[in-house]
Amino acid sequence: MADSEQQEENLKKLIVRLQNVEQGSEVKTLLQILDDLILLTTVRNASILFGNKNIHMPLLVVLESFTEIASIQQAGWSLLCKLMELCPSIINKLTTPQDMGKDWDVLGVHQQILKLLLIYKCHPTILLLSLKVLTILVQSDEISLLLRDDEMDVFSLVLDGMKRLADHCGIQIYGCQVLSALLGKVPDEQMIEFVEEKDHWVILEAITKFSEHEDLVLHGLRALLPLASPQNNVEVLMSGNEKCYSLVTDAMKRFPDNEAIHETGCCLLQRFTLDNFYNILLLHGAPEVVINAVLKYPQNGTLQAAALSSLALLTETIFVNKHLEERKDDLCWTEACCRALETFKGNAKVQEAACWALYNLLLYQNDLHTKFEDEEACYPVHRLVMTAMLLHSNSKQVFQAAANALATLVNKSVQIRRLLLAKGIHINILDLMKKHSNSCDVLESACKFLNKLFIGSNLKWDIMKLTSCRIIDTLKNTLHNSSVQLEALRVMLHIICPEDMLDAEEDTDKLEAIKKAIGKQCLSDGFHGLVLEALNK
């Protein structure tokens, strides 16, 4: 207790001394004040001790007043860095100063850190420190905006420092961290310009030079991730000169136990995959590292979504390449899809990715559906996918992925078709069609699924009536979308030609009654006019 009181008293005295420092003060005295304050940041209760103390403001005044003295800058910024680590709320106080009046325009922390980068660009210790401080400051959206809008270009200053001291691993690490944070907050146009000016080469060279350094590789890949968002950039990053895919796959192979590297790597490969570079990725082993990651880190939702999304798009390329014929079984990620659907029921992105991955596996593995049954030894895929669709009923993307997966599955398995009908999934589909009646993608996927589901099925009159009403509404709402019109008309064939859906013992009178009722319903809803309009297109 006595120690805490003494530390509190010492801190108050040091703050008073710091507040009364004048520009002509002796450097040695000021350094001693700063060193004593830094020492206090190492005590056990430092976060409590420094909480609610106004040290940052007089410290910024001192840093502004002694810009040309390296020892003061090093000690002062070290202290500010430690204060922000101990009390993160200080960052918010730096953006909303109190009682500073006009001085704040001069003392803005964003201006001071940029000036530090400019003046000490050849000073390894201070440059490293300034980049470390920046990694903390850019956590604030407000300070990030001030940095980007300042006359001194923060990107140029950071890149210049990284180029000048390219052999300094720490500077490359913090530089990549700053770039990652800042690039994630700029518009696509600025990221495209960044790549067009070949500024990204600084990141690539850092990863290549320090390829054995785990932290640098991680932060380098994270800096590349936002740059891989615009399609123009992806084309450059995947070009022969850049070969970013090799950097990513090599990093994932070199550090098999680093989950963060695998997560970032999978996210990068997903963005590369979205731009149709399937063959290049296949030839350079992307599917292998993605499959290894999805199997090794089943609890990482971000990784699972990115990896399964990539595999969904790469499936066709994998299975049509003859030289991979013997490895098809090794490249099957069915179990990973099922586990992801089960583990991340509340994560829409994972559910969507897993459904698309299953859809593509079903397309290219003819016997895969035999593993999807209700028996104990099989995967209950139909139940998992149906759950995804219903649990994320507000997501058009999940519905589209789930509907396509189920349509492919019921087309191959009569047993699952009967199971889903028994569970009343068609009622759910019709409800979701009404909910997303403005989405052509949802309506087309829904109609495709219903068409497959109703094959050989015995529908009750009320279901036929409900279906016809919903399909006619769909036809009316999608007059200019021929693909939706086609799928909707196919569903109507099951309604207006019900012979195949009746049991053999049904009497002729009942069949005729149903036909008349259906005809009357269709006429009253204007179905004949919709058919004629479709035929005239």
Give the helix/strand layout.
Blueprint: H1 2-19, H2 27-40, H3 46-50, H4 56-65, H5 70-86, H6 90-95, H7 104-107, H8 109-119, H9 124-137, H10 141-149, H11 154-164, H12 169-183, H13 188-196, H14 201-209, H15 214-227, H16 231-237, H17 244-254, H18 259-273, H19 278-283, H20 286-296, H21 301-320, H22 334-343, H23 348-364, H24 381-391, H25 396-412, H26 414-422, H27 425-435, H28 440-453, H29 461-477, H30 482-496, H31 508-524, H32 527-535
Helix pairs in contact: 1-2, 2-5, 4-5, 5-9, 8-9, 8-10, 9-12, 11-12, 12-15, 14-15, 15-18, 17-18, 18-21, 20-21, 21-23, 22-23, 23-25, 24-25, 25-26, 25-28, 27-28, 27-29, 28-30, 29-30, 29-31
Keywords: Repeat
Pfam family, one: ARM_LRRK2
Domain LRRK2 ARM repeat: 12-537
Polypeptide structure, described:
This protein is mostly helical. Helix content is 71%, strand content 0%. The chain is built from 32 helices and no strands. The longest helix is centred in the middle third of the chain and has 20 residues, at 301-320. The protein is elongated, with a radius of gyration of 32 Å. The protein starts with a helix and ends with a helix. The relative contact order is 0.04. Residues 101-106 and 327-331 have low confidence and may be disordered.
- Summed over residues and divided by their number, the pLDDT gives a mean of 87
* End-to-end CA span: 88 Å
User: Into which percent range does the helicity of residues fall?
Assistant: over 70%
Unreliably modeled segments: 101-106, 327-331
Number of helices: 32
- Which overall shape is indicated by the principal axes computed on the Cα atoms? elongated
- List how many beta strands DSSP finds: 0
Largest sheet: none
Strand content: under 5%
